[in-house]
Write a structure and sequence with these properties.
Layout (H helix, E strand, L loop, with lengths): L3 H4 L5 H14 L7 H10 L8 H14 L6 H4 L2 H16 L3 E2 L20 E4 L8 E6 L11 H15 L3 E4 L4 H10 L4 E4 L9 H11 L9 E5 L9 H14 L3 E5 L6 H11 L4 E4 L7 H10 L11 H6 L23 E2 L8 E5 L12 H10 L8 H11 L1 E2 L12 E5 L12 E2 L4 E2 L5 E5 H6 L3 E2 L1 E3 L15 E3 L1 E2 L2 E2 L5 E5 L2 E2 L8 E5 L2 H11 L2 E4 H4 L25 H5 L3
Parallel strand pairs: 3-4, 3-7, 4-5, 5-6, 7-8, 9-24, 17-18, 23-24
Antiparallel strand pairs: 1-2, 2-6, 10-15, 11-22, 12-21, 13-14, 15-23, 16-21, 19-20
């Protein structure tokens, strides 16, 4: 088995001089183009970083070679060399090195990728001759345990590991996080979308490892990145470059649920053009299944790995449970005298409306979230209904300080009743979510007043200075960017709201459709108001919000016909 050490004399003079140059050019991000930085690091000769005469000679030679003598005033500066020296020594001590180009860019490869410099750190023994990348196109923020791409990844990753493949992955997006969760505890090559965390100091590295605890084991991983420290790469470009590097480091690629003409599709085409096996794996009923099928018809692929036993393997991965889950089909409801319909008179209540929670719950780690999804744990989709269910199950409404002046943690309520909820519904483009969804709980106003709830004070930015310190959590800008906030008629309570202190007769639960009210009543015994029955505007077929009942789990996996299309 070939290792990185076979290609590179780790810890030698070349190693230190490369890190020295990496630090030196990174201090001039606004002056030197990335391509020039890569060229300086790549083409500089070996030199002794502790002798200024050697540094000067090597830099002058390199700038001449890359035809950029104009950069001499910015790099031939001894005061910068001292900082670069310290950085090089620290990075070397933390195990940072330049990844040999022949490991990700074959000698006959032309184009942008072979010109780049890739840095790495971590367990060098992770590297192997057989490396597999599993790519998928961008997925919705709210993910179901039965999402087709998850079902397919759940099969692919163990199959690749059983064949002795080292997984090349990344972090931060759904596909990579799913791959890392399944492959946790085995060797991984992790491509970072930003600068290598090992180059951000011990604090930066610890923060990164804390976020991805349970997804990435640093003792079994090698981390790589082509982003120089201090570089601000636009998010869209960073994601695309990251995916290309993932593919470049792999000796075989599987593409799941890909978008026709998208980034992953172009990566698959690039890989095939240089002779790397790139297999498109269909995920029926997935986000881009109709586009994936078009790609399958355009190409003839070898998929011998998936020909045997795929259907039975995937069927064994289906989520089945007798408990409530956000994807469980529901029977037709029966009449219930606890249900409050549009013909009933509602008391004076304040409402805490819930939204979907893409990603971990408050207090839940990213690793715990992804394990729950892959294990099919009830409520792990984190829809607005799941959020409501969790509140009732814990009997606790947790506070938040997001968008609150003074950062005091509060629970927010609104005077706007469910019958008028559509007046608050608008798409928040910057937050990529609806401002409100048809789920929540109402509590009698007098009860909330006794728990400390008080109405919000709306005003201008200038008014805030006159608000007493003890009431600043109640202040809200009346209007911002042409959005009126006073229409929410908001109230706030300091701290959490303990539902065990609230009489059940003082609570009303808000749900989108009648079937959901039966779940709540059978589990918790609360009265429910069904938003879709208050006004025809809220009918599931007309509502702007997707109900959990609209998503059927269907049949996922890789069918025999899909495999036959690739033979």
């Amino acid at each position: 088995m070939s290792s990185i050490r076979d290609h590179f004399s780790y810890g030698g003079e070349r190693h230190l001089s490369s890190l020295f140059l990496l630090s030196l050019v990174s201090t001039k991000n606004k002056i030197i183009e990335d391509q020039v930085k890569w060229a300086v690091i790549k083409y500089a000769p070996d030199f002794n970083i502790y002798k200024h005469s050697n540094i000067r000679e090597a830099l002058l030679e390199t700038l001449s070679k890359v035809k950029r003598p104009d950069l001499e005033p910015f790099l031939i500066r001894e005061q910068l060399w001292e900082k670069a020296l310290l950085a090089a020594e620290k990075w070397a001590a933390d195990g940072v090195f330049i990844l040999p180009a022949q490991l990700y860019a074959p000698p006959d490869l032309e184009g942008d990728m072979c010109k780049r410099v890739v840095v790495a750190a971590g367990n060098l023994d992770v590297w192997s001759n057989h490396r597999t990348a599993i790519l998928c196109s961008r997925q919705p923020r709210t993910i179901s345990p039965n999402a087709p791409f998850l079902q397919t990844i759940r099969y692919l990753v163990p199959t690749c590991m059983q064949k002795g493949r080292t997984i090349v992955s990344s972090h931060g997006t759904a596909g990579y996080n799913a791959v890392n969760t399944i492959a946790y505890g085995t060797p991984l090559v992790i491509v970072c979308s930003g600068a290598l965390p090992h180059m951000n100091g011990r604090t930066g590295l610890n923060k990164f490892l804390s976020i991805y605890e349970g997804l990435i084991d640093p003792t079994l991983s090698i981390f790589v990145s082509e982003v120089l420290p201090g570089t601000n790469v636009p998010h869209k470009h960073a994601m695309k470059d990251r995916d290309r590097l993932v593919a470049a480091l792999a000796t075989e690629i599987y593409a799941v649920d890909i978008r026709l003409g998208g980034n992953v599709h172009s990566i698959v085409c690039e890989a095939r053009s240089r002779g790397v096996p790139a297999i498109v794996v269909p995920a029926p009923n997935a986000s881009y299944s109709h586009q994936t099928n078009k790609i399958l018809k355009m190409t003839t692929l070898s998929i011998s790995m998936l020909r045997n036993g795929v259907k039975s393997e995937l069927q064994s991965c289906y989520i089945t449970t007798n408990e409530y889950s956000s994807e469980t089909p529901l029977d037709a409801p029966s009449a219930d005298n606890h249900l409050i319909t549009g013909n009933s008179k509602m008391p004076s209540y304040l409402y805490h409306y819930t939204r979907s929670c893409p990603g971990p719950w408050p207090g839940q780690t990213l690793g715990e979230y992804w394990r729950a999804l892959l294990q099919g744990t009830p409520n792990s989709t984190h829809t607005a209904f799941d959020t409501l269910y969790r509140i009732l199950d814990e009997r606790l409404v947790r506070p938040s300080n997001r968008f609150i002046r003074g950062k005091e943690r509060v629970v927010c309520f609104s005077e706007v009743p469910p019958s008028r909820l559509s007046t608050l519904a608008r798409w928040r483009k910057g937050l990529t979510r609806w401002s409100v969804e048809p789920y929540g709980l109402g509590i009698a106003t007098v009860t909330l007043w006794n728990l400390g709830a008080r109405p919000v004070q709306y005003g201008s930015q200038e008014d805030f200075a006159d608000v007493p310190l003890g009431q600043r959590h109640l202040f809200q800008i009346q209007r911002s960017r042409n959005l009126p906030w006073d229409v929410e008629r908001e109230w706030r309570v300091r701290g959490s709201v303990d539902l065990s202190l609230v009489p059940s007769q003082s609570i009303i639960i808000v749900v989108a459709v009648r079937e959901e009210s039966e779940i709540i009543q059978s589990k918790f015994g609360y009265r429910c108001v069904v938003v879709s029955e208050l006004n025809d505007t809220f009918h599931p077929k007309k509502s702007p919000w997707p109900s959990k009942l609209e998503a059927s789990p269907g049949q996922f996996g890789l069918g025999e016909r899909a495999l036959e299309n690739q033979q």
